[in-house]
């Protein structure tokens, strides 16, 4: 007989906390962003685009979250892997949904299990990554 540990899924309340924390961090830095939260199955749990953020930031945040979820790694850690000769050089064309290897997508874990991902777009890549990780810290 095997036992499986239950891990609480990412909830819409969690998603609200993540979105608010990322926006507060961005606002404090004077940056306007879009934030996307996906559950473990890749379904959209929450999305928010600041009215002053460029429209493409919404697509960017969603693709960053999707990439972090699919590869279970922060997108900031994957940039070199998609360069010519890199581990994932041909991966973006092999999947149904295009991936985005720019910092700002971070997987979300609970009790060691992947439960979702956050994507932030609108600032510089290192800023977006910082806003995403700050949001995850607020969830803890």
UniProtKB/TrEMBL annotation:
Classification via Gene3D superfamilies: Haem-degrading domain
InterPro entries per the UniProt record, alphabetical: GlcG_carb_metab_protein, PduO/GlcC-like, PduO/GlcC-like_sf
Coiled-coil zones: none
Pfam families: HbpS-like
Domain of life, source organism: Bacteria
PANTHER family: PROTEIN GLCG, SLR1406 PROTEIN
Entry protein name: Heme-binding protein
Source organism: Streptomyces muensis
């Amino acid at each position: 007989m095997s036992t499986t540990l239950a891990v609480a899924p990412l909830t819409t309340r969690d998603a609200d906390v993540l979105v608010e924390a990322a926006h507060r961090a961005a606002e404090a830095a004077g940056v306007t962003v879009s934030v996307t939260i996906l559950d473990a199955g890749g379904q959209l749990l929450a999305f928010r685009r600041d009215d002053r953020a460029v429209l493409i930031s919404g697509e960017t945040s969603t693709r960053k979250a999707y990439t972090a979820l699919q590869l279970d790694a922060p997108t900031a850690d994957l940039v070199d892997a998609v360069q010519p000769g890199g581990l994932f050089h041909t991966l973006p064309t092999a999947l149904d949904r295009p991936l985005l290897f720019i910092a700002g997508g971070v997987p979300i874990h609970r009790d060691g299990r992947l439960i979702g991902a956050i994507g932030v777009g609108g600032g510089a890549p290192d800023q977006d990554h910082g806003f995403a990780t700050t949001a995850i810290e607020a969830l803890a």
